[in-house]
Amino acid sequence: MVAHFSDDGWLQGVRHLPSLNCNLRPTNAAVNLLIIHNISLPPAQFGGGYVDQLFCNTLDCNAHPYFEQLRDLRVSAHFFIDRSGEVTQYVSLDQRAWHAGVSQWDGQENCNDFSVGIELEGTDTLPYADAQYTALQKIVRQIMAYFPSMTTDRIVGHCDVAPARKTDPGESFDWHRLRASLCV
């Protein structure tokens, strides 16, 4: 994937599917945190386009019993990386995606204000695919170039910013692999 960001925060060379679940960042927000999540809909099932539908408010909550609890939920992320490594961008980096919820990092609350959210198609306990790590490493490098104040020590899991309610990306995520790939 050869990609770069346009001046308006959209990564070129990836699929764009704009979500309405975003808004402007506070004017004083210095974006310097990257949060890694996981998602699968229904849980532990991959493919099907349900993540796209959830982030774009078109999910048919009658399509699966699990989806009923998602009715009226308005969430998004900046990026989603599926099991094959395909990347979809839903929100410009210049906007606040609604991915972290009630959260805090390094004494700052409301992490959505100053973070970028990347969802990996997966679960806490199933290994992520090699293609996902390859795509993630490339995107993270591009994001760090776009936001020079973002450093590798400010790449965290959803579990780190909302530990009382979130566990993702989970024990199956190889933090060492990601960090090592960013240091070369």
> In what range is the share of β-strand residues?
15-25%
End-to-end separation: 17 Å
Overall, the morphology is: globular
Please tell me the overall pLDDT.
Answer: 96
The H/E string reads EEEHEEEEEEHEHH
Q: How would you name the oligomeric state of the polypeptide chains in this document?
A: single chain
As residue ranges, the low-confidence spans are: none
Strand arrangement within the widest β-sheet reads 1-5-4-9-3-10
Secondary structural class: alpha/beta
Helix run count: 4
* Major sheet details: 6 strands, mixed
Tell how many strands the DSSP assignment holds: 10
Percent helix: 10-25%
Rg is 15 Å
Quick tags:
184 residues, 10 strands, globular, single chain, alpha/beta, 19% helix, 6-stranded mixed beta sheet
Compile the SSE list and pairings.
Layout: E1 15-16, E2 22-24, E3 33-39, H1 50-55, E4 79-81, E5 87-89, E6 95-97, E7 104-105, E8 108-109, E9 115-121, H2 130-146, E10 155-157, H3 158-161, H4 175-182
Parallel strand pairs: 1-5, 3-9, 3-10, 4-9
Antiparallel strand pairs: 2-6, 4-5, 7-8
Helix pairs in contact: 2-4
What can you tell me about this protein's structure?
This protein is of the alpha/beta class and 184 residues long. The longest helix is centred in the C-terminal third of the chain and has 17 residues. The two termini are 17 Å apart. The chain has a six-stranded mixed β-sheet with strand order 1-5-4-9-3-10. Strands 2-6 form a two-stranded antiparallel ribbon. A two-stranded antiparallel ribbon has the order 7-8. 36% of the residues are buried. β7 and β8 form a beta hairpin. α2 packs across α4.
